[in-house]
Amino acid sequence: MMSLAPDIPFLDRLADVADRVTLPLFRSGLPALAKSSTRGDFDPVTEADKDAETAMRALIAATFPSHGIAGEEFPDVNPEASHVWHLDPIDGTRQFITGVPLWATMAGLVIERSPTLGIVSQPFTGERFYGAPGRALYRRGQDEHPLRTRDCADASAASLFSTTPHLFFGDKADRFERLRRTVRLVRYGIDCYAFVLLAMGFVDVVVETGLDDHDIVPLVPIIEAAGGVVTDWQGRRAAGGGDVVAVGDRRLLDAVLRNLGA
Predict the structure, then answer these.
(1) Is the pTM of this model over 0.70?
(2) What value does the mean pLDDT take over residues 140-144?
(3) pLDDT surpassing 90 at residue 241
(4) 3-class secondary structure for the chain?
(5) Which of 5, 47, 65, 145 could form a disulfide with 132 if both were Cys (CB 3.0 to 4.6 A apart)?
(6) At what angle do helices 8-25 and 47-63 cross, to 10 degrees?
(7) How far is CA 173 from CA 41, 179, 187, 208, in A?
(8) Pairing state of beta strands 68-71 and 159-162?
């Protein structure tokens, strides 16, 4: 097997322990509880989310006890460490509980405040996406090849993905609509999978708002190593969530940001 860096095999171990929790529970009728939500919508969590993150945290603590951990379901541990893992045991819990196979487990390592390693694992489809400095990789069974974004310098030829237009309110809704009108194709609803499709060269722009750090940190190394760019709506490198833009072709970024600008 090809190895990206010394830590890539550990990314696989993290995904493996999560898969052993999540995959048997997918399409099992697992009940979901509602988290508190400031958006007024149903924000679900399941025992699969919690148990998978518990397993990932235990593996990190046993292997790298000095590392920090920030996850979706539990409080941060040692967040000021030089190495901090960001965990999202099931990104796309709404997909998970409705039987849609586009959720994924995500883990990313921030080193000295810079997203450096990342993995996205979808065990139902058997796909894994890896990112490390200078290297992005796709793996499914025996199929293993580099990830590369596609050329698309003109917004009028671009495909745009977002989770849902209903996440954008007020002025942000107007700005997103301005961008939407400039592109060729708009699709919604696949959460983190839109970002890995961008890294694979099938999507050109992904725009999100209100992300947490664990929603984006694992994706930054994958997209950047595949040739793309991930920023906030002001053009600064995305590393902590919030309003996020990813483009596969760097030449698209200025046009996208102009449309999203206040």
Answers:
(1) yes
(2) 95
(3) no
(4) CCCCCCCHHHHHHHHHHHHHHHHHHCCCCCCCEECCCCCCCCCEECHHHHHHHHHHHHHHHHHCCCCEEEECCCCCECCCCCEEEEEEEEECHHHHHCCCCCCEEEEEEEECCEEEEEEEEECCCCEEEEEECCEEEEEECCEEEECCCCCCCCHHHCEEEECCHHHCCHHHHHHHHHHHCCCCEEEECCCCHHHHHHHHCCCCEEEEEEECHHHHCCHHHHHHHCCCEEEECCCCECCCCEEEEEECCHHHHHHHHHHHCC
(5) 5
(6) 160
(7) 17, 10, 16, 11
(8) unpaired
The token pair at 228 is 């793309």
| Confidence band of 30 (pLDDT split at 50, 70, 90) | confident
Side-chain half-sphere exposure of 112, counting CA atoms within 13 A: 0
The predicted-structure confidence for 215-227, as pLDDT tens digits, reads as follows 999 999 999 999 9
Question: Distance (Å, rounded) from C-alpha 102 to C-alpha 80?
Answer: 32
In tens, the pLDDT along 182-208 reads: 999 999 999 999 999 999 999 999 999
